[in-house]
Amino acid sequence: MEEYIKISQMVHSITKMDVTLNDRDGNTLFDSIHHSIPVVLGHPDDEYVHTNEILNKHHSNQYYHHINPYGLEYMAVGIWREHSFYGSLIIGPFISSILVIDLIKEIMIKNSLPIGERKQLEQFYQSLPVLSEIESKYIGELLVNLCSHEYINSGQISSNTIKPVINYDQLKITIEENKDIIENRYHHQNKLMDAITKGDRAEVQILIDSLIDVFVGFSDRVPGNPIRSSKNMAFVCNTLYRVAAERSGVHPVYLHNISERFAIVIERTTTIPSLKKLMFSMANEYCDLVKSFSTGHYSPIVKTAVDYILLNLGYPISLTTIAKQIHVNPSHLSRKFKEDTGMNITDFINQKRVGEAKLYLQRGNISMTDIAFMVGFNDLNYFSKVFKKLTSVTPSQYAKKRKL
């Protein structure tokens, strides 16, 4: 199977997608995987056996487009030698819909996934390649053609390299110019990090333009490969944004997921204009993350309590439960929580749950009962009462207004 390991490496390098090579029993012989599938979505190992069974029942010139219960799609082709099935080469996961948020809502409801996982799942699905029907078809046909005959070793014919002539006077000028560029870049970088730490999206929009201009100026760091240089700078910015958001007190769970997603998207981007657009998206999303999940302005006890609440919204939560989990006295926690947030724990939890409920009500085709249970309310009447108290309208009225 060594030749198919080479093919797997080649497919991964060109498509930037995850590739797995399995033997006939479903055991993994090689993989090149960037995506860490969230625990709540299970693990695809049992799907490898299923995929092999399907491929083994069909002709060697056919490929298998598999969609699992969580909407994750895979393209697989059998490896055959002298009409005998040897294993499979699988590429994925990918998705065929850009409506990620809607997809997440449907998947969470169908599979009864905890509401606290929504943000992490959003980040994961947004990191996946989105393939059109024709693109997935071409990938299937490509895999069939790559795996239907023996691997052929190839050789490269190279052109002669022209040795550059160094102009030392110009080199001195360039060094001075680069010094100014570096100082300017660090100045804007620090201001931008401060803006992200505050979640100040308006300030970020002003600063990001200057940073991107400087960013493009560093596109020759890898000689002859400006896209690689630009990607490297984008990785640096991703790290800077993550550190800035961390300073605001955003929980590492959220930071890990958004950082991993952007790392994958950066590597998959193929043009400098696309990378520039991505820089805007990255800064804005980190800013939004700070706005939604920052707890750095709270005292340590309240910060820990808020983090626990945000990660467990879909489960029963009470003052006693939280106090026990974070090992503090309930009365002390209640007092500190009111001091820091201006509301008691029950009101805070209800506010966050109603915020989540709004996202599902905007969908328009989910029952009120399902939404209530998804966001942690065990009683539909209580859900409606709390929702109206916080929004001045009932859940049904809110959903109807969103349709208009």
Can you characterise this structure?
The chain is built from 17 helices and five strands. It is an alpha+beta fold and 404 residues long. It folds into three domains: 2-147, Beta-Lactamase (2-Layer Sandwich), CATH 3.30.450; 168-293, no CATH class; 300-403, Arc Repressor Mutant, subunit A, CATH 1.10.10.60. A hairpin with a 5-residue loop joins β3 (63-67) and β4 (73-81). The mean pLDDT is 82.
Number of domain units: 3
**CATH-derived architecture of the largest domain:** 2-Layer Sandwich
Detail the poorly predicted runs: none
Give a count of the beta strands, DSSP E runs of length 2 or more: 5
Shape label = flat
